[in-house]
Amino acid sequence: MSMFPRDPAATLSTGLQQPDTAFAVSPHHLASKAGIHMLALGGNAIDAAIAVDAVLGVVLPDTCGPGGDLFALIHEPGQTTPTTLNASGRAGSGATADDIRDAGHGEIPLHSEWSVSVPGCVDGWIALSDRFGQLPLSACLAPAIEIAEAGFPASAELSWSLERLADSLLGQPSAAALYPGGAAPASGTTLTRPDIARTLSGIAEDGRDAFYGGDVAHAICTATNGVLTVDDLARDQAEWIAPVGLDLFGRTAWTIPPNSQGYLTLATLGVFEALDPPTDPADPLFHHLLIEAYRSVAWEREMYVSDPETAPLSPDELVARDRLAEIAATIDRDRAGRWPTPHPSVGGTAYMNTRDHDGMAVSFIQSNYHGIGSRRSAGTTGVFLHNRAAGFNLIPGHANEYTPGRRPMHTLAPTLWTDGSELALVLGTRGGDQQPQFLSQVAALYFHAGLDPSAAQAHPRWSMDQPHPGTDSALTMESLADGGLVRTLRGRGHTVGLGREMDPGYGPVSMITGGSTPEAAADPRVSTSAAVAQSR
Fold it and tell me: What is the signed CA dihedral for 481, 482, 486, 488, rounded to 10 degrees?
């Protein structure tokens, strides 16, 4: 029998508003449906989030999977501060920064054995399930196992991604299932993945030991040429931590502190709010100030984001109001600026969110990093290993220098917003360096401009490369943006290019609101993204 019996109370859409409703929003409708199915079985938002993530790792392996890392923010009804999980892995003990430099590299090669840190995802699943789950982990993984065994249609996005990655993936032992007949599948082709089904079944039966020990662990060590060792994998990667928060727009925004770049979203919006921006998103000043607010803090990321044990500033210092006010004072309301600074210290993703009938909500992000990560599979396990260790640098003495046992700078940056002890919004996206850009835009449109979730999702977005010290403003806007806005921004000194009407790379953003009549909205930029609702 299918894991997904038809549930007449479940609704599939990109935008939903219903009272007394549970939601699952993700980049793929099969994953969203799996999350809702966990609720139908008596599970909660945590069980749903794990199920969503496991399915995404099967049907969108170019974005996430058990070979990557995980962060989560959990709202418990009545609690003012979200419970926060950092399940990002650490650098292996089989190499040092000197080894990489001695091999002739000035930075960590993206697709090398050195780019692979310990995958934290499975430890994250276990930590979440042990602390909050109402269903056994095996039940949460069952939909992903069934889909991997029975097959699923390749989406247009997955087909394009596998075509682009074919040259580097076809030689990997776990690639055979993704390239039937030795070629990238056309959109709609049914794919089965018995390799990842076996690995997930092992985790369902034997827990942590099935992934971080035995054959899978041996395959991971072999794939990294010993950079990751058995002892590295034996160390639990999941850690419960304090979030970083900032009062914004009459609510409190929460995110993951460093080693995540998440504070950039809060700092951007803190600077933006300090500038007393207009509320009308048709006013070019709204966008000029938001762009400048982001640029004014983003240049400093490489100085401040590292393993928390070596970070130069505390999370609270990074979002301190007086610091943000000083930054806001450097912004010209009429002209794009440049932020020359003191010399720095020598120095692919899937987002999903869930909310259950009792009001528990999860902001959950998991990633393989650059597409399918290091482009190395752990043997024939179906697990593709991330390249999150490429977030380190090789600068001697830097807080983010590649060091065994240290966590790298991380782009994953989910948010969760509260109003006192009430949930206000669960918001996140994929997008690498651009995550704070997209989240700041959607949050400003929703909270400050007052757009409803679907309108905030559909509003044209801008994107720019990660700003560095002393650089000018250069961005690309979706071509649906108003021509007058583009001309005005150019007149204020921004270099503005035009891209696609709605670019899949500018998301997908997922959001679930709070309140007595919650809403959920999936990003219309990605064809498979979906919000699924279930009434009591």
Answer: -150
Give the whole-angstrom CA distance, residue 278 versus residue 244.
27
Are 121 and 66 within 8 A, CB to CB? yes
Q: How far is CA 469 from CA 121, 260, 301, 329, 466, in A?
A: 33, 20, 10, 17, 10
Is the pTM of the predicted complex or chain greater than 0.70? yes
Using a pLDDT cut of 70, give the percent of the chain over it.
Answer: 95
459 vs 441: CA distance, rounded Å: 9
Domain 241-347+411-515 of CATH type 3.40.50.1970: no
Domain ranges of the chain: 28-239+350-391, 241-347+411-515
Residue 451 identity (one-letter amino acid)? L
pLDDT tens sequence across 286-339: 999 999 999 999 999 999 999 999 999 999 999 999 999 999 999 999 999 988
Beta carbons within 8 Å of 513's beta carbon, 6+ residues apart: 424, 425, 453, 519, 520
Tell me how far apart the alpha carbons of residues 460 and 454 are, in angstroms, rounded to a whole number: 12
What are the phi and psi torsion angles at 164 (to 5°)?
A: -65, -35
Active-site residue among 252, 268, 349, 415?
349
Establish whether 381 is a catalytic residue: no
Tell the burial category of 350 from Cβ atoms under 10 Å away from its Cβ (0-12, 13-18, 19+).
Answer: buried
Res. 536: pLDDT tops 90 = no
Instruction: Count the Cβ atoms, other than its own, within 10 Å of residue 517.
Output: 11
- The length of the chain is 536
